[in-house]
Structures are given as structure tokens and as C-alpha cells.
Amino acid sequence: MSEKYTKIGNLSVSKVLFNFINKEAIPGTDIDEKDFWKNFDDAVHKLLPKNNELLDTRHKLQMDIDRWHLDNKGKEFKIKEYEKFLKEIGYLKEEGKDFKIDTKNIDDEIAKIAGPQLVVPVMNARYALNAANARWMSLYDSLYGTDVIQSEESASERYDPERGLEVINYTKKFLDEHFSLENNSWRNVNKIKVVDNDLCLEISKEKVGLKDKNKFIGFRGKDHSPSGIILKNNNLHVEIIINPNAFSAKSDAAGISDIILESAITTICDHEDSVAAVDAEDKVVGYRNWLELMKGNLVSTFEKRGKKLIRKLNPDRKFIDKSGKEQKLFGRSLLLNRNVGHLMTSPAILLNGGSEIPEGIMDAFITTLCALHDLKTRKNSRQSSIYIVKPKMHGPDECSFTDLIFHTVEKILGLDEYTIKCGIMDEERRTSVNLRECIRRLKDRVFFINTGFLDRTGDEIHTSMEAGPMIKKDDMKKTKWIEAYENNNVDVGLQCGFSGKISIGKGMFPAPDNMAQMMKEKIAHLEAGANCAWVPSPTAAALHAIHYHKIDVFKKQKEIEKRNKANLHNLLSFPVTNKPNWTAEEINNEISNCAQSILGYVVRWIDQGIGCSKVPNINNINLMEDRATLRISSQLIANWLHHGICSRKQVLEIMKKMAKVVDHQNKNDDIYQNMHPKFDKSIAFKTACELIFHGKYQPSGYTEPLLHLNRLIKKN
Questions:
Q1: What are phi and psi of 366, to 5 degrees?
Q2: In whole numbers, what is the pLDDT of the chain averaged over residues?
Q3: Catalytic residue among 288, 317, 332, 338
């Protein structure tokens, strides 16, 4: 151990992490190296007992709930008695008086601009840069390269002029809808210029202007011959690029070569569900990328089609406003950081006695330390705030603990109180049913709440494991509890004064290749009152941005405030079936669907250290898979096993069958390792089976403990 760790005080710190902090993270800050380690040592050991106590509480509450279900098996279910029981054991908290959040120094991207939110694995520098730069995206490229516009050439590498014309027509309709002209259409515009500080368009030598002149805010280039026109709608910017010499402008009378949309307003740089970080080496990769993003220096070099390419952060976009003054629009997405939750520990640092450090505490200190660099330049947060998304908190007491961690970090790093802002992931049952009290505990630093359907469903299954056999995955979306959960998140956020101050978010669209479907479905998140919603790619961000031009979310929130609030009884209902009447074929199909999903994700996690990727499902449709999707699939089969819907032998046979399917789906991956036929030699296959067969006994149904254990075995 002495070869890998440096002893400092009561800590044994991995040398790779120790060197990163001392040589990369601290230099350029006002932090003294010796003071940091001494204070960090003291703080972690003071925080550890509370961390452990809260995890013990989770376990005790789960045992109490299991016992209640067993004691009441076969009896008529009475919601009021169940609710009374949850209050008695401390699971359901009494609500206090009405209150409003008091978070200060929030950037406009969170408070005033409604728009798409990207989530990106922070360990991949190229992806992180793509996400940060996705603030501005080409609508032409986003339409041409996806299935939003259907044509025979949609999948061809050869340019199709007819498809190109369809893209142009689509963008003209977009402009007509949101930046309409006086008695005419953008399709007919043949000249664009700026006259007397106003946008002047010509149609057959007739001058035409915008119906709403306030939507024009400036231009780039020369007024009589601009290279770009800047428009604004619902606080989102659009730039019309004018370049008659460009290939894409050949068929455009006005010389328009592209439409650039303000797209990914915020981006979550993820250290949690979308990465596979199991040791110090992995953690440093993520920390270093975050540090370089905060410094504004992150660079990625890669080859594409035989050419060496260098990717770096985009600069701000300059333009001339109506008064003739130079202005700028921020060139990159506002970057947020998702730390891990309270459960997991990391071998990157060993504490007094040899135990591993709680990973969430380590994340809080180190990601904040890295963010100090931005507080000097304010290239990310213009309000000098540090935004940390905190996942998988169970109830108000755990929210209070997060607040304590952040207070401790602020004190040690010399930050003003509440510099660190906290995003609450509403993805655990005990948080959902106590959401208002969770927010109250963080009312001075909360900056968003966000639903996470898959994790929330995984916890629903695990918490109510003894209630009975759960319904199928797809049927979960039609239950009254999920409707109550989604509505409650918005209702409570609005009651607590979120609108116009901080964000209410909604979850991920999981199919990155099905953008036509996304354009039909995801507008529902805005109609539900969300002023940000997750997308799986920069291209999806550009397309989803169109929805925010269609709907003024802040107006929508005012309408929603008047509706009847979500019902707690519905939120506490169980998605179980008392008399399952599924056929053998239906049962096998559901298990096969779950098994294939589990294996497709786990094999990449264990063998290649990929925490999030496009994984083909059983129907060969690519879906974005992460630990949340894994959690629900493994917990569902574990539940069915527990209630005798299927047998261990049956599940194992299906797992082996699906392993062959997954092997075939990955046949073109040169570094892929087949699970079939030597199942007993495949750590990935073993892990996938353990997630199911040991699923009932995993804390809260989480997948991390088994994934981390087996990935370390694979690495070593």
C-alpha cells in the first residue's frame, strides 16, 4: 500500500490524486497546500459518523417497511394506515409552514432562460467539450443529419440537394412561426440588411420588417451587408448566418447559409451515473477535465477520417447591438457538476483505521477546489456561484447533511456562505414524498429540482419489494403514482417560489437516434412546467431548443400554479398487481427485455469502463443507458423472482440466451470480449447475474456496489 499511497495526517492519499491536487488543482488559487490537507483531514473524519448514521437509517427504514408489508400480507390495503405508519417510523415528515427559497447569485441560464440541459460523462474530454460548446448549434446540420426530416438519402453520406432544400424550407417555417414578418414570409426574402438600427428585409425590392421589432437585437459584419443577424425569442437567441458564397446558400435568394440556435443552455458534467470511476486513476481523469473546464483550457486531440483534429472551448460571440455598441453572447453552456451521492466510498483516499472515504464528501471538496479557478475569471458563472447537482438523497435529513458538507467545504476553502449551490435530484421515494421539506433544508442554496423516472422507479420497486409483484416496465409510465410524482415535483417547486429564480427540470429522452420521436414527445416536458429538460446529445439540444421557442415556460408555470396539487395518496400507491395473469410468453419476453438491457450495459461497464453509451436494445434500437436504466431492470427481475413470477433457473437460461444476442450486437467492436460460451469466465456476465440474484439485498436497489467491486477485479 505504501507504494500507491502518501500518508498525510490521518489520511492515506493515492499518490496520483495527491499529486493532482498539489500540482494542478491548488496552484493558481489562494489555498495553502498544508492547510488544505490538515483541514480536509479534520473535516472528513468529523463528517464520517453522520454519513454512516444516515446510511444506517436507510437500512432500518427499509427493514421497517418490509416488516409492515409482511405483517399486512393478505389484508385490505388502507392508505391512511400506511401513511400513519410511515409517519411513526420517521419516513414521512410533518410539513412546516409555507416558505419561499432564498437562493441568491443565480446565473440567468438557470433563473431566466428556459432551454435544453445536456448531461455529459466528465471523464470523456471530447464529449465534455462538445457539450460545453453546444450552447450554439447549427439547425441546418441538426435537421439534415437526423430523422426529423424523412427522405431516402437521410442515412447517406452523399449530399442530397432535395433533402438540403427540405432543411431550408423547415428553417423558413421556423422563422415564420417565431420571427414573423409583416404580411409576408421568410421564404420570399432576397436581401437582408440593417437600416437605422432596425432589421430591413427586401422582397422584390419592397421593404419588409419584423412584426415584433423587439425581437431583432443586433448584427455582425456591416449594417448594409451583415454576416449575421441576431434575433431573440423567449430569452433564447437565434443567429441567421448570411454567406452567399457558402455551399448551403446556393439556393437561397437572401444568401442565408445557416440558422444557429442557442441550444444547450446548461450542461451537467457528470461524475456519477454516466461514468465508471472506481479508483483514484479514474477519479483524477474526471477531476482533471473539470479543472481544465473551469480554467477554460480543456483541449482534446483526436483523429477523424485520417485527419488530426483539435477541439477546445468556443469563445464568446460578439455582435453590434441596435445602438451601435459591441456586445457579446456567452459562447458556452453554463457548466454544472454532478457529484456522487452519500452511499459510495472510494479507495482513492483511506481514512484513519483504513476505511475508504465517502466518495460524495471527496467530490464536494475536490470539484469545488477546481471551481475556484472560475471564481477569478468568471468565464463560467458570471454570478460567482458553483453549481453541484446532488443525486440519490433520501429525505430531508440527508439534504441537511449535504448542506453541512457544503458549509464545511466553503469554510475550509475560504468561500462566502452559499457560494456552492445545490441541485436536488428528486429520484428517491423518501425525497419525493417529503420534497417540500427537502427543499426547506436547502432553501438558501437550492438551484434546481429534477425528476429522474428510472432511478425513481428503481427505488419504488425496491422500497415496496414486499408489497407484491411489480407491473411491467412500460406499464409503469401509465400508473397514478408516476403521474403524481411528475406533477408533485412541479407543484412543490412553484409553491416554493422557483419560477423566475431557479429551475424545475425533467428527465432524459433515451433514444438519441430517434429525433423525430423526440420532437413529438419532449414538448410535453415544457407543457408540464419544466424550464429545463435533459437531452442525450448536442444535436438533440438544438432540436429540443425549438420547443422553447414554441412555449413560454414561465407563462405556462403561472397557469399550472392554479391547478389542483398532486395527491400524496397517489404518490404513495404501489405499482403492483395482486393477481398477475401474464402468459408464460409475456413473462419470458419481459425478462428477456430486461436481461438484454442489463447485459448490454454491464458488459461495457465492466470490461471497458464505459459508464454511458448508446446500447442497442432487444429490437436493435440504440438507447442511452446508464446506471438508472440498469437499476430498474435488475430490480424488476429481482422482484419477480422474490414473488415467484419466475424461477432462478428460468432467469439464468434467459441471461445466457441474451448474452449471445449482446455478443452478436457487439461483433464489430474489436476490443469486445464475448460472454458466450465461457460464462463462468466472464466477470461481466457474473456481475449482471449478481445484480439480479442479489438485487433484493442491495442498498436501495443500487447497482454501484457490485459494479465497482467487479470493475476493480477486472482492472486488476
A1: -80, -40
A2: 96
A3: 338
